[in-house]
């Protein structure tokens, strides 16, 4: 998965989002979270059942939610915030 471009490559392209990310900062590659304790916290959140649902889980976005996310991402990008990261040239 392309976690560097999570909002574009995963949310916008696939129409899914990770809900309940337990770590500070944005969603990132699990190999980049920063140590065993943080990886364990992420694993626990993905496995934990809380009232019949996991505390960290993937959801499929409705068409309206997806359009809203895309509009918000474009607005952030327009304000100069980093949303879409260009790929390295080969």
Structural features, described:
The structure is a single chain. This protein is an alpha+beta fold. The chain is 41% helix and 13% strand. The protein is built from three helices and four strands, in the order αβαβββα. It has helices spanning 6-14, 36-47, 63-78; strands spanning 16-19, 49-50, 53-54, 57-60. A two-stranded antiparallel sheet has the order 1-4. It has a two-stranded antiparallel sheet with strand order 2-3. Strand 2 and strand 3 form a beta hairpin. The protein is globular. It starts with 5 loop residues before the first helix and ends in a 12-residue tail after the last helix. The mean pLDDT is 88.
Task: Name its key features.
90 residues, alpha+beta, 41% helix, 13% strand
Question: Could you write a compact summary of the structure shown?
Answer:
The protein contains three helices and four strands. The protein is an alpha+beta fold.
